[in-house]
Specification:
This protein is an alpha+beta fold. It has 15 helices and 27 strands. Strands 17, 18, 19, 21, 24, 26 and 27 form a seven-stranded antiparallel β-sheet that branches. The chain has a five-stranded mixed β-sheet with strand order 1-2-4-3-8, sandwiched between helices. It has a five-stranded mixed β-sheet with strand order 9-13-14-15-16, with helices on both faces. It comes from Kluyvera genomosp. 2.
Length: about 575
């Protein structure tokens, strides 16, 4: 392997980015795969010396995402790993998240790609490589249409930047781990000062007012890290910007890669794993908007790939062998969409998402923790509401929740797509979180997460994109709840594909906080939980004839009656095991 260290790549404004290139011995020009991020090229070089780790290994570092260098070189490509402006060994300043000192990151990617294509070790054909931030960078680059960029392979990308940091309006803490290096992640490799977009844009008086407004939020005020960052933003610049922009708007939209999809005209392969609903949602949204040759693959649970990243390389090299080397390997003859269906653990294919025709059917929240296709017949005077009181973390670690479940399924029941939860809720505070988790529970009690849904109560407004079972919230303003009123909240359930096997149950949990660690969260990156409520809240859930709280889910076929004698279900389960 030939290693070219610390290459200086000129940008059009005179700033130089740093890069390393790896290729096989010999002078033969080869196609190049480019990886760009702020995590540091030296960190990515650990792919040469650290065996891939799965969560929750303590050596798993979520920032080693540029791919398997040895494999790239072996497959006949040049692996080029670069530091974005203001990070690593590159020059310049980095302001905000996807903005580098007023220069769009896609513009820098254009210049970087064309420089690589002109080098003697490159044959002029370029693709890109890397997951998560590296994947988002591919979309920025492709939208600028550099002539030498022939195709991209995007795995685990983050697209709608507001939804990356506020799920349903509820702040998600994981992006801070990735940016600042917390809980095992290395974080951004800023060797030059990283500037806050907010501090650069607004006057000190305006910043003081924004900080005061955020500290008035009891959820923020009860979280020490938030208070610290708001008072001392230096060295926490990117997270300060996120905290002070709690609703969607121009600051997020100008950085939203989905808005750039219309500009992309090269082939795009999109890959994402089940279990990370917000990124599945964004990946599907991007796929639907693309008007170029495209593929979509939704891979299996668990949600996180290994670090260093070595997954999906077989498919990636088939894609690039076809588009960069001209090898007709049949990949474009395959269906456009490929989905790993959980439950039965099989692959399903089609030309769109969902890959099969679905019909939306309700499952009603009933008394005694039941989910039923039949609505409640009685009013609230007989079918009394139920509820839970959540004390803040300042006085308890216990997460309160309500649970409902179907009877065991008597046939394999397929549910594929996005869903909704219509919840009639009364609270005694101006705001709360509504967090839903859907599980596939086996007769043994073992369960696997199916999907999630999140909604800040003050973000309950729906917009014109909403259809049955497919709600959308604008998140452009926060409207406090009048305590003591019953409101209908429509929670978006992120996309999933699950076959519920015979004897299994669909279980749904409702809470306003979530466990810091459980069988699912332990598989996610460090700090991958949501900002808890900072004040005591009582939640009363109405599910009667006048308040039909329910799930609305995309069933592939009309679900059959769920009632089956217990012994029959158990016997069939043991027969299946044998």
């Amino acid at each position: 392997m030939i290693v070219l260290k610390d290459l200086r790549v000129p940008m059009r404004d005179g700033v130089h980015l740093a890069a390393d290139a790896y290729h096989a011995e010999g002078d033969e020009p080869r196609p190049a795969l480019i990886a760009l991020s702020p995590y540091g090229k030296e960190l990515q070089a650990l792919a040469l010396t650290i065996p891939p780790q799965k969560r929750p290994s303590p050596l798993w570092d979520g920032c080693i995402e540029a791919g398997d260098i040895t494999r790239v070189v072996k497959e006949g490509y040049v692996h080029v790993i670069g530091d974005v402006r203001g990070s690593g060994a590159s020059e310049g300043e980095h302001i905000g998240n996807y903005n580098a000192g007023g220069v769009p990151l896609g513009q820098d990617a254009y210049d970087f790609i064309e420089w690589v294509a002109a080098q003697p070790w490159c044959n002029g054909c370029v693709g890109m490589i890397g997951i998560s931030y590296f994947g988002s960078m591919q979309v920025f680059a492709a939208s600028e249409r550099p002539p030498s960029l022939k195709a991209i392979f995007v795995s685990g990308g983050h697209f709608d930047f507001y939804e990356t940091t506020y799920h349903g309006g509820i702040m998600w803490l994981m992006p801070r781990a990735a940016r600042e290096g917390r809980g095992g992640d290395s974080g951004w490799a800023f060797t030059h000062r990283h500037k806050s977009r907010m501090l650069e844009t607004y006057t000190p008086e305006e910043i003081k007012a924004r900080v005061a407004a955020r500290l008035a939020d009891p959820d923020v005020a009860a979280w020490p890290n938030m208070v610290h960052i708001l008072h001392y933003p230096i060295h926490h610049e990117s997270w300060f910007d996120i905290i002070t922009n709690e609703v969607d708007g121009e600051w997020y939209e100008e950085q939203n890669p989905i808005n750039l999809a219309k500009n992309i005209d090269i082939p795009v392969y999109l890959q994402i794993n089940q279990g990370r609903g917000w990124t599945v949602d964004g990946t599907i949204a991007l796929f639907d908007l693309l008007q170029c040759p495209k593929k979509l693959e939704i891979g299996p649970y668990p949600p996180m790939q290994t670090r260093p990243w070595v997954d999906e390389h077989d498919t990636m090299f088939r894609w690039y062998d076809y588009w960069l080397k001209g090898i007709d390997n049949g990949i474009m003859d395959e269906p456009a969409v490929k989905v790993h269906v959980e439950g039965t653990r099989r692959w399903s294919t089609g030309e769109q998402w969902p890959v099969k025709a679905v019909g939306y059917q309700p499952l009603y929240l009933r008394t005694r923790g039941k989910l039923s296709p039949e609505p409640e017949a009685y009013g609230a005077d007989i079918s009394y509401p139920e509820g839970f009181f959540q004390a803040p973390l300042t006085i308890t670690d216990k997460v309160e929740k309500l649970t409902w479940s179907t009877d065991p399924f008597d046939a394999v029941t397929s549910v594929h797509g996005v869903g909704a939860a219509h919840l009639f809720v009364e609270i005694d505070q101006p705001d709360t979180n509504l967090i839903l988790r859907l599980w596939d529970e086996a007769p043994s009690g073992k369960r696997q997460l199916v999907s999630t849904g999140f909604l800040k109560a003050s973000h309950r407004e729906l917009d014109a994109r909403t259809t049955e079972g497919n709600p959308h919230h604008p998140h452009t303003r926060s409207v406090p709840v009048e305590p003591g009123t019953i409101n209908e909240y429509v929670v978006r359930i992120y996309p999933f594909a699950n076959d519920f096997c015979i004897g299994h149950k669909l279980v749904v949990e409702l809470m306003c906080n979530e466990p810091m660690v459980d069988e699912h969260n332990s598989l996610l990156p460090p700090d991958a939980y949501h900002l808890p409520v900072g004040q005591p809240v009582t939640h009363i859930i109405y599910r009667d004839a006048a308040h039909p709280s329910r799930l609305v889910l995309p069933f592939v076929a009309q679900p059959k009656a769920n009632h089956r004698p217990h012994d029959s279900v158990v016997n069939e389960y043991h027969l299946l095991r044998k």
